[in-house]
Each structure stands twice: as structure tokens, then as C-alpha cells.
Amino acid sequence: xxxxxxxxxxxxxxxxxxxxxxxxxxxxxxxxxxxxxxxxxxxxxxxxxxxxxxxxxxxxxxxxxxxxxxxxxxxxxxxxxxxxxxxxxxxxxxxxxxxxxxxxxxxxxxxxxxxxxxxxxxxxxxxxxxxxxxxxxxxxxxxxxxxxxxxxxxxxxxxxxxxxxxxxxxxxxxxxxxxxxxxxxxxxxxxxxxxxxxxxxxxxxxxxxxxxxxxxxxxxxxxxxxxxxxxxxxxxxxxxxxxxxxxxxxxxxxxxxxxxxxxxxxxxxxxxxxxxxxxxxxxxxxxxxxxxxxxxxxxxxxxxxxxxxxxxxxxxxxxxxxxxxxxxxxxxxxxxxxxxxxxxxxxxxxxxxxxxxxxxxxxxxxxxxxxxxxxxxxxxxxxxxxxxxxxxxxxxxxxxxxxxxxxxxxxxxxxxxxxxxxxxxxxxxxxxxxxxxxxxxxxxxxxxxxxxxxxxxxxxxxxxxxxxxxxxxxxxxxxxxxxxxxxxxxxxxxxxxxxxxxxxxxxxxxxxxxxxxxxxxxxxxxxxxxxxxxxxxxxxxxxxxxxxxxxxxxxxxxxxxxxxxxxxxxxxxxxxxxxxxxxxxxxxxxxxxxxxxxx
Amino acid sequence: xxxxxxxxxxxxxxxxxxxxxxxxxxxxxxxxxxxxxxxxxxxxxxxxxxxxxxxxxxxxxxxxxxxxxxxxxxxxxxxxxxxxxxxxxxxxxxxxxxxxxxxxxxxxxxxxxxxxxxxxxxxxxxxxxxxxxxxxxxxxxxxxxxxxxxxxxxxxxxxxxxxxxxxxxxxxxxxxxxxxxxxxxxxxxxxxxxxxxxxxxxxxxxxxxxxxxxxxxxxxxxxxxxxxxxxxxxxxxxxxxxxxxxxxxxxxxxxxxxxxxxxxxxxxxxxxxxxxxxxxxxxxxxxxxxxxxxxxxxxxxxxxxxxxxxxxxxxxxxx
Lengths: 599, 319
Hints:
The complex is a heterodimer. Helix content of chain A is 27%, strand content 19%. In chain A, strands 1, 8, 9, 10, 11, 12, 15, 19, 20, 21 and 22 form an eleven-stranded mixed β-sheet that branches. Chain B is mostly helical. In chain B, 76% of the residues lie in helices and 0% in strands. In chain B, helix 1 runs antiparallel to helix 13 (284-312), helix 5 (88-123) packs across helix 8 (175-213) and helix 12 (271-280) runs antiparallel to helix 13. The longest helix of chain B is centred in the middle third of the chain and has 39 residues, at 175-213. The mean pLDDT of chain B is 86. Chains A and B meet through helix 6, strand 8, strand 10 and helix 8 of A and helix 2, helix 3, helix 5, helix 7 and helix 11 of B.
């Protein structure tokens, strides 16, 4: 799909010929995120849909306790220090951003009075300046009013390198200024088509100036409020034990009517995913469980208990194989897998294509993932309803054999192909995880039929995913022929995600293997596209470029996307949640309630 | 006695130093990085990680980090958790009450089983009671706790739906209700640990009593016409229990150390689960503090066991 076609589709949505929802689904099929598609529509002047979730309770409170199980407990409750999602979720109970993403990619206002748009004068100078109007009458849990000063302070706090905030990337290149007590201006260095990053979703939680003010910069770790959050959220802080429990009580002054429904909230950590699933689906001891990485078979058996069901929410996680195009076994200029070196087999696109043909994604989906994974051809995410016309995949051993024969790789006496004295023996590594070892076995089996010998290697997750410079087995070094893991598209915008293949990001000694281009893919054309997308003001052109970049990586078989992994959550049958694949689980916590009164 | 105590304490100091050096180097050499979770997130620029490493002094040479840690420890500063950004002592103190209650109760249960069963079995060796008790004891300590734990969960939580299997430290109830809830959730972990420990202690008690019961002075006591009960309780048990007391004293540090596996199964927020989480996340200050306190307790209880020995058996003297 190219730029004119995209424009035609957007025009269809504007005239009402194409429902907004199907447009977004098509874009998602092409590998864009729902928020990106939504931003394109907003830019074209199609108003954000204002979804009204069916919220039935007619009064605040009275819902009893809400018990939530996270098998990785929150370790800290300061959103700008979050080590991972679990910490952001824990913080989100108490803190709120200006707006959140719903499952269809709509921006939903939380602390904002409305969503900025070109029509309401909120998006100025083509997205260079964004004016946010804040909701009036919102108070912090300690009774102080929430104003523009808090928003400006959050920006100052997070952008200061001495604070060591993990959200610094969002805030360091923007300027935020106060217009009046309830209006702020966010100015970007240049027109930014995807402007909904600062103060939005997981990285946008606003912190109170009156409590964090004295603890900005180098003193940030001494703030007592780091451990006792005071926010604007639906629940007020009661207790926190790192790694174990976060508890909260109803915020009687919450700024949305009749919300929240529950009187208390408890977020319990620890244990493992299987027993968390059991506590929600089978015994009903808990109401909700996060991230159930459990085989579908097991989930189904537990659901038969009749207490809860699994919620499957499409998101941007992708399990994929990377092929090493550099030589990981010999040193060039004193460095293994040097960017300039060539892999004896994978530097040939034909071999890479054959390898892709040997990945039986369908079996992986059917026998390993079930409902919890979909075979995919795209690197950017892709739910099963739509297939991108530009990329496709198949599993075909005969074809792979034919391609390898044609490329000059002949089978030797032991059945293993060789060319120029080099045997087709590859080391295929991944982290230790039951599911991954099964996937490895599926690929190995097919490869054997094509005369390729795969040596399977599995590395403890804490080593594999570490950035330890001294360790040869990290995924960042990628000192073997193939590797597999899941990459997470954490931001709704694809820019950072697609940076993974620009040559400047190549993971090598010079950057202590912290570069994000782990395949060490070097293609000037890709670099050029990435650069042009960065400064592209027109969101449609930009989207078309990203689709092209996705196609490039996939069709050159630098990576083999395997399975798109939706989020799997467990919920009580009576619990009504509002989940979004583009934001935190708790992004709409205020709307959660239980049907049929207290359980 | 006083000299002995002083000498032992003096020996303890270099051994603790040695232990801390070994712990620290092993942890420093172990692969992994406390901020690896961030490395996986493309939205966090690598500079943030580098900045944090600098802030926590992770890039300094090992010996510098060790001496900094040692110096802070002398000042009573246990360190600062990389992951939770909280002082380590706060983290540990939060976990102590639950650990003491659950593991302590399980040790009491173990003693309550081991003493009567062990003594009775030894008093009537190879009787039916002894055979059944021995069989059960073997079964008890051959089954690992993760297995019995899951078995109990399947039976009492899933089939019968009597007991909860998620342990909650914050129970929003008062008075009897609070005690009742705590009792209900503690039964399974306490039983799993107690029965496991009790099974092996039963064997120790039995063999210790058997050793004594054959001695001449016991025959003398019996031939004086004392009642069997008096012979066993007054003459046999007191002597037989000396090795058992040592054994119990030596397992006491575990009450602090927690039970890693069982805590994980029942989600008991004890020291064990704190330790394993800290190890998995490479949170060195927490691992260091927990293991160091643990080694201090091992040394301390070794000393206590030696002192108890002398008190129980006057033939042993300290020089």
C-alpha cells in the first residue's frame, strides 16, 4: 500500500464511506499501530471517536475489594523510575496521565479536558505546538489542586539527566510552558505528526509539584513520596511492600462521576504465571491476573473451572528469528561479528530465504500458542484478520531444498549441505523458556530435512537479556548464527521500533553492544528512508515509509517474524474491565466494575 | 568460659570478613545487570542506563566497590536497592515478621512431631508404631516441598476450596477475623515446611534415644524398679537430646533465611522470596545484605550450640 492509496482510504473515512474502525484495522494489518493510524485520521481532520464505555454502576464505591495478581510484583511506585511494566502498572493505580490510548487507538482524556485537534485549535503549526487544556476541579489525594504547574514540573523533573528518569527520552527534546492555570503548551523542535507522547499513557503520568519539587535532579531518590505516592487516580495509597503488595483505598474525591466502583484495590506480586492463572480462572481467589504466559491448553483446562476467562488483547509483541549476516566465529579487526565481516552462508539472500521457508509458523501457532499467538509475516505487529499484501510467508521444505540446490549448496555424504568446504551447521540460540525450546525443535526438524544441521543453544534469560559487556552469550552481541526472542513495541509510534535496522544503531564493540540494530543490517536505502520518516511532517507519507521499511527487512529475510503475541490476561467472569493493547492494563482502571454486585 | 567466648568472637571477625569478600566477588563476577530490564525497552535511551550505573558506582573496580560497601556497613548503612530505590534495611525489616511467623511456626510444628514420635519409636524399636513412623518419616523427607506444596494446593484449595493459596500480608480485618484469616492462609505453608523438617528430625531423635537406651545406667535405673515413664523421661531423654539440641540450634538461622521454594509456591512475602527476586534481578546490595546477615546468624548459632553443649553435658569443658 502506498501513499496515494492511504490518502484515498483516509478520504473514505472522512466522507463516511469507510468506517473508522475498519480503517484502523487495515492499518494495523499493514504493521502500523492503532494509535499511529488514529493520529493519521486526526491529522486529516477526522475527529477522534469518543467512545463511551458501558459503565453501569450509578454510585461511587460499594464494590468491595478488587484483588489483582501480578506474578512480578511492583518494585517501586514512582512512574518516572519504572524498571518495567509492572512498576508502571503499580504507579498507574495512583497517578494519571493527561490521556490514554484505548483499544481502537483513540486518545481518551483523563486529566485533559479534551483531546487537542486541529479543529479545536489544540494542534498548532502542523503539530509543532500542542495545546492541552486541563480538567478543572481535579485534586491530588492530599487535597491540593491539580494545575498546569504540575504538568510543567513533571516535564522539568523527567528531562533533567540528574534525576535519572527512565522517561527522559520523551521529555528531553520538548519545551512545556504554562499559559494559564489550566492550559499548557507542548512545543516540539519541529512539526511532529505523532505528538501524543508527552503526558500520554504509561510514560505520561503527572506527579505533584508540591511534593516532588524539593527532590528534583540529584536528590530524586530521597523523596519520601517515591514510596508513598500521592496522585490524582481513582485509588489513594494505603500500603506498599516492594515485590509483594500494593494496596489502595477508594478516592472519595475522584474527578469522574460514580467512579471508582471498588472500595479497595490490592495488587499482589510473586509466584508464577500458572498459579496466578489458577487463582483467577479456577478458584476465583483473585479477580484479575496480569500476563498469563501459560500454554493455551492449560488455560483452557482452568477456564473449565467456570470462575474466570482469559482476555486476549492484540498488542505489538513479536517473537522472531534474527539471522546473522556478519561472521560471528572469526575476529575481524579484533571483533567477532564485525559489521564489515560476512557470514559464510547468511550473507546470501537465497540461504536466508530458504531458512525462512523452513520455519513452520503454523505448527508453532497450533501446537504451542493456541489462542495466545498468531503466525505472522510482518515485523511490525499484525493481528490475524488482515494480511499485508506486501509480505507473505509459507512453510515449504521442497522449495527451500530447491533454492539451496540452486545456490550451490550440495548435500554431502552425511546429508548436510556444503559449499566451498563449509558445512551448513548453524548455532541457533534463545533464552531458556519451555515454549522457546519447543519452537527451536520445530525449526530444527524442518532444517534437517533440508540438509541443515542446527545446534540448539539455550541461555538463561537473565544472562541472555543482560547488557553485560563481558558475557559472550547476550542477545546484544549475537555471537552465533541465529537467535530468537520476543521484541516489544512499547511505544505506540513505530519510529523507535524501526530504528532497529538503521546502520548507526549497529550493535558493536564501539557502543558496548548496546546498539539496537542487533542483526547489524546495513542498507543505505533503509537509512535514508528512516531519516526521511523522522523529518516527515505528513503522517500519511510517514506511515507509507514505515510500511516500506517493514517490507524491506522482511522481504530481505534479515529477520523471520514468527508469532505475533497478544497480551493474555485473566479475569473473573463478573469483572468488567476496559483493556487496551496500546496502553497499560490499568489505563482505564476507573471504569472497572463487577456485574451483579459484590461477589 | 569468658575467655572461650572472647576467643570465639575474635575468630568470628576474620571469618565474617572472609565470607563478605567471597560473597561480594562472586556476586560481582556473576553475569547479569540490574538494569537489564531497561535495556530491553527501546524507549529508554542507553544513556539512562549508563547514568544509573554511574550513580550507583557500578562501573568502579570490584575492590573499590567492596571497600565502599564494607565502610558503609560499619556505619550501619546496609546499602540502597538498585531496583526498588529503597534502603535495604527497610526492605528486609518489612519481610522479617512474616518470615519469623511462618518459618518459626513450622519449626515448632516439626519439634512437636519429632520429639514424641521419635522418643516413642525408640522406646519400642521395631514395633508396629515404629515401623509406620519410620516409613512415614522416609516418605516425608524424600518428598520435596514444592511437590507436597502443590499437592496440598490441589487438595485443599482446588478440590475442597477450604484454604486460600495466595498468602497476603495485608489483611483488612481486625480482632478474631484477622487471626482466623492469617491462620487459614498459614496452615499450608507451615505444614509443608513443618512436616518436611519434622520427618528428618524424627529420625535423629529416634537414633539418639536408641543410642542411650542401651547403656548400662538405663538398665540400672530399670532394675531399681523405676517406672518406665520415669526412666525414659528423666534418664534417657535428657542425655539423648544433646545432639538434637545442637541440630535444632544450627537450623535456627533458617528461620531468618526463609524458605525460597515454599515461599514462591504460596507467595509468602518472606526473606526467601526477597532474596530470590534480588538474585534474579541482580540487585547486589539486597543479596549482599541478606546473605551477610544469614552468615552472621550461622556463626552466632554455631557458638550458641557449642555453649549449650557445655551446659547440657558438664563433661565438656571450654579451654
